[in-house]
Write a structure and sequence with these properties.
alpha/beta, 10-stranded mixed sheet, single chain, 331 residues, Spore Coat Polysaccharide Biosynthesis Protein SpsA, Chain A, 35% helix
């Protein structure tokens, strides 16, 4: 990617301080909206990104202006939202999607361990979502986990275009899809994500990722991209045969450690995704969350595979990029 904007020396996720944060009411509460309307939240969100934009180098600003002014190519965008636990944040997630300046072509909600009560609730909420041409609800029996549902949905319901990942308890900035599409097109990316606002236990963190995630991942197997904020080409998904789906957590890391060998991966330099971490979610619980023994063990296996691929690549050998664990394999 020589000659592009990707000159950052950041090689991993990095928490940063933003002075304007004190003037914004990102108070760390999981209930981001509270008594505010969505428009008020977006306005404060805009102030945050404007202040951060001022800190960017002029060369990067020029490139962002170019990507935002470049016509967005016509590509079908399919947004899939895995949903479990019947939590109360789905409304906010769908509100952020419905408010996009560039609407996705299709929104699919995949309900894990679906019951009729949950199905009827989701059906009602999705029915209120305007501006989306196609909307679907897909029911799954039993506990499958997000990756198994994503694999099945992308195989059976999405033929081409772009895959837009979204968690059911997070909120996207209304410009997120439009900005990521323009950035993706300008820099010929296969995967594009953004920076994030991370909220957990009344603590707000502003997480910056490397602009050139491919270069970072080929330097070391770190955490270089926000998975639920990603826009992915379906052709790349098919080339990698989707996610490793035997386990219900951690497969985003495994996917990215395979993708970096054959794709161009980048992050739009703005906070376009607000991520709420719930204590009982797969990333927040003591059993499966960050720092848990099982997640650390799986990450060690994924990193070992990564280094083996690097060794094979250095010898000029073909690289095996199949998922580490399929739902039919044994750990």
């Amino acid at each position: 990617m020589s000659g592009s904007i990707f000159k950052s020396r950041i090689f991993n996720a990095k928490e940063i301080e933003i002075e304007v944060a004190a003037t914004c009411r990102w108070d760390g509460s999981n209930n981001l909206l509270g008594s505010r309307c969505f428009d008020d939240l977006v306005q404060e969100w805009g102030v945050l990104n404007k202040e951060f934009y001022k800190t960017l180098p002029d060369c990067l600003k020029a490139k962002l202006i170019k990507s935002s002014s470049t016509p967005i190519p016509k590509s079908k965008v399919s947004c899939v939202i895995p949903y479990l636990d019947n939590h109360c944040y789905l409304n906010d997630a769908l509100l952020g999607i419905a408010s996009q300046t560039h609407k996705p072509d299709m929104v699919i909600i995949a309900i894990d361990n679906c019951t009729e009560i949950v199905y009827e609730k989701v059906k009602f909420i999705l029915g209120m979502l305007g501006g989306i041409r196609k909307k679907k609800i897909i029911k799954f029996k039993g506990f499958n986990g997000p990756y198994k549902m994503l694999n099945q949905i992308y195989d059976e319901h999405v033929d081409d275009g772009l895959l837009w990942l979204h968690d059911s308890d997070d909120i996207s900035h209304p410009n997120r899809l439009e900005l990521q599409l323009g950035f993706m097109n300008t820099h010929r990316l296969d995967i594009c994500s953004s920076f994030e606002i991370s909220i957990l236990n009344k603590m707000t963190r502003y997480i910056q990722y490397p602009l050139n995630a491919t270069r970072s991942l080929l330097s070391e197997p770190g955490h270089c991209m926000l998975w639920p904020g990603s826009l992915i080409k379906k052709t790349l998904w098919d080339s990698l045969r989707g996610c490793s789906d035997k386990h219900k957590f951690g497969a985003d890391t495994e996917f990215q450690l395979r993708a970096c060998f054959i794709s161009r991966m980048g992050n739009y330099p703005a906070f376009l995704y607000a991520r709420r971490k719930r204590s009982n979610s797969l990333t927040g619980s003591k059993e499966t969350g960050h720092g848990s023994w099982c997640r650390e063990y799986l990450n060690s296996l994924y990193k070992a595979d990564y280094y083996f691929r690097q060794m094979q690549k250095s010898k000029g050998h073909d690289i095996d990029l199949k998922p580490r664990f399929s739902s039919g394999s044994i750990l």
